[in-house]
């Protein structure tokens, strides 16, 4: 799989637009990938431990048409230095899925956009058509904690500008 990584300066115009968005006002280490045939993770779901920090996808909106460079902006009060795979002792941690690939990003892969708001830029180009983006907590054995799953469906345009 060919991966295009944008340098920080190439991302500045995108970040400026996202930071100014009304939707935002409302509400590099490599990462590991898991393949999920069919994208159905619920059979391996686990029970939620006592109160986990909330997750909410802010952008893109459900049903949006996007370009092939996917990004997701989400909100959580979690301390991501402790709840990602880059934590000193990984336990419950964040997963982000797109196109049947599950990613476990490190804290360093997020751009902080303000209090409790983060941007994650996927390093794989999206295939045109309908795509489901998911964000959720997993336990230490990488089982999905079902009641934390947040998901949206977007349409990747064939000729959308980057």
How do you describe this structure in short?
With 162 residues, the protein is mainly beta. The protein contains 2 helices and 10 strands. It has a single domain, classed as Immunoglobulin-like (Sandwich), CATH 2.60.40.
Description:
With 162 residues, this protein is mostly beta strands. The chain has one domain (8-156): Immunoglobulin-like. It is built from two helices and ten strands. The protein has helices at 8-20, 22-26, and strands at residues 32-35, 56-59, 65-66, 71-75, 93-98, 101-104, 110-114, 117-121, 129-138, 150-156. The strands form two sheets. The chain has a six-stranded mixed sheet, with no helix packed on it. The longest helix has 13 residues, at 8-20. It starts with 7 loop residues before the first helix and ends in a 6-residue tail after the last strand. The relative contact order is 0.26.
Tally of helical segments: 2
Based on Cα principal axes, name the global outline. Answer: globular
Biggest sheet statistics: 6 strands, mixed
Category by helix and strand content? mainly beta
Mean pLDDT: 77
β content, as a range?
25-35%
Strand order of the largest sheet: 1-6-5-9-10-3
Domain count, please report it. Answer: 1
CATH superfamily (homologous) name: Immunoglobulins
Q: H/E order of the elements?
A: HHEEEEEEEEEE
Uncertain stretches: 1-43
Distance between the termini: 19 Å
What is the percent of helical residues? 10-25%
CATH topology: Immunoglobulin-like
Write down the Rg.
15 Å
CATH architecture: Sandwich
Look at the structure and give the CATH class: Mainly Beta
Number of strands: 10
């Amino acid at each position: 799989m060919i991966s295009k990584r944008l340098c920080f300066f190439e991302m500045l115009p995108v970040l400026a637009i996202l930071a100014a968005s009304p939707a935002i006002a409302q509400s590099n280490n490599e990462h590991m990938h898991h393949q999920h045939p069919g994208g159905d993770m619920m059979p391996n779901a686990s029970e939620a431990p006592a109160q986990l920090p909330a997750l909410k996808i802010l952008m893109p909106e459900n049903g949006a048409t996007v370009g092939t460079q996917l990004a997701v902006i989400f909100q959580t009060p979690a301390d991501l230095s402790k709840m990602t795979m880059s934590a000193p002792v990984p336990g419950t941690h964040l997963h982000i899925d797109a196109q049947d690939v599950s990613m476990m990003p490190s804290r360093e892969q997020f751009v902080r956009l303000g209090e409790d708001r983060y941007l994650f830029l996927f390093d794989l180009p999206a295939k045109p058509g309908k795509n489901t983006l998911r964000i959720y907590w997993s336990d230490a054995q990488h089982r999905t904690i079902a009641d934390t799953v947040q998901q949206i469906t977007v349409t990747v345009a064939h000729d959308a500008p980057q």
